[in-house]
């Protein structure tokens, strides 16, 4: 999409073919302005270089690319996270998992975040609870690089491990295991819609029934949990009962599900039997 030099910031803010919030985000990114700057410099005319940069960003968005990938940032749990195409975009729904973990985390607690991606969960936990010992693993080196940058940015003490689930942490134990694993079933229509079209497939789907990663975690976690330690997992909107059944079948206590802000059972967990 093409824009011309001389257009004012105010005219562009009202005239871009996107939702108002997206207009503002892309304008700020292209012009190097803050939200306040959009107001104080509303009558400033843009240069041709700025017009070209803005046009390229808008074209990417009109093609469907997520805003978070275009600007390379997304807020999560009050923190600004780097995101790239190597990781899922952190979503507000996942903040419920962080809140539940913080409520149950003992002083100096040891936490394992499985499939950390951008590190959003692990960094949020370590940033909020400076006393915690947080380990985060992922099979993807590219994802771990993003997580490492986010940990450094926020001064969060997170140990990062490349591992295919429990493979690289044999013999280690934790007070809590948390995970937002791939849980969309292969062939689900959502995978070809919206932002999901651009996100890494391996972080979205298990290429099976949507429960295989959850089964692996539920089965393997007891060997890595202290007695009474919690396992908390995010899952799909219609999977809560199945995940509760998995936890119960593997002998977990206090099995329960918790609802997100939309009223959907989004996180399910249980405690390793004492």
How many beta-strand segments?
A: 9
- CATH level 1 class label of the largest domain: Alpha Beta
Number of continuous helical runs: 11
Roughly what fraction of the amino acids lie in strands?
Answer: 15-25%
CATH fold group of the largest domain: Rossmann fold
Distance, first to last CA: 61 Å
Tell me about the biggest sheet? 7 strands, mixed
Order of helices and strands: HHHHHEEHEHEHEEHHEHEE
CATH superfamily (homologous) name of the largest domain: Vaccinia Virus protein VP39
Instruction: List the uncertain runs.
Output: none
Globular, elongated, flat, extended or rod-shaped: what is the shape? Answer: elongated
Global structural class: alpha/beta
Radius of gyration: 21 Å
Helix content: 25-40%
Mean pLDDT: 95
Number of domain modules:
2
CATH architecture label of the largest domain: 3-Layer(aba) Sandwich
Q: Could you explain how this protein is built, in words?
A:
The chain is an alpha/beta fold. It folds into 2 domains: 9-63, no CATH class; 87-271, Rossmann fold, CATH 3.40.50.150. Helix content is 36%, strand content 20%. The chain contains 11 helices and 9 strands. The protein has helices at 9-15, 20-31, 35-40, 48-62, 67-71, 95-104, 120-128, 141-153, 201-204, 212-220, 240-249, and strands at 73-76, 79-82, 110-114, 133-138, 158-162, 174-179, 225-234, 253-259, 265-271. The strands form 2 sheets. The protein has a 7-stranded mixed beta sheet, sandwiched between helices. The chain has a two-stranded antiparallel sheet with strand order 1-2. A hairpin with a 5-residue loop joins strand 8 and strand 9. Helix 2 (20-31) crosses helix 4. The longest helix has 15 residues, at 48-62. It is elongated, with a radius of gyration of 21 Å. The model has no long low-confidence stretch (mean pLDDT 95).
